[in-house]
Amino acid sequence: MAKLFFAQRQDYQNALIIGRPYRKKPYLGKKSDTSIHNICIAAIKRKTMKPYDFKWTRFYEESADFKNSYQGIEIELSDNELVICSTVIDKDNFSVLTTQNITTKENGILSSGNLNGAIDKLYGNFKGIKNEPITFGLLQLSNGNEIRYFIETHRASMVMIYGIRTRIQTEE
Questions:
Q1: How many domains does the chain have?
Q2: Which residue has the higher pLDDT, 5 or 87?
């Protein structure tokens, strides 16, 4: 409690020095998985052009839709974890974004990581790839590891890009 008071007092003193009004920062707490899911789906819908009839990419307003659509793909979800979006080419090449993790299987090699503290490194290479159907994005996880994820090009790219971007921003 003393540290918190001191930090607030220091913020107040710094605000006085630089001549800005002091505003106490509200405590927002950790968002629930349902809240993160709703925020991400809303961002995807705002940024993606209709119709949402993409070849490999989908977003899921109901998490159960993923399990029903891709019964051959098994990913482990914790109790409250919800699927936000995915790019599924086949059972050996896919990326799935959830409210807590990203899971990618590239050429049969599965990699997964927690998104808390992750940083966007790359949203794919879209220059001069008019005929390429897929590109890769890159995330750096909080432990320093990097994980690639599939992005379907053209209109569908907004689903994975804004799903991941918004999920990362919900922590701030």
A1: 1
A2: 87
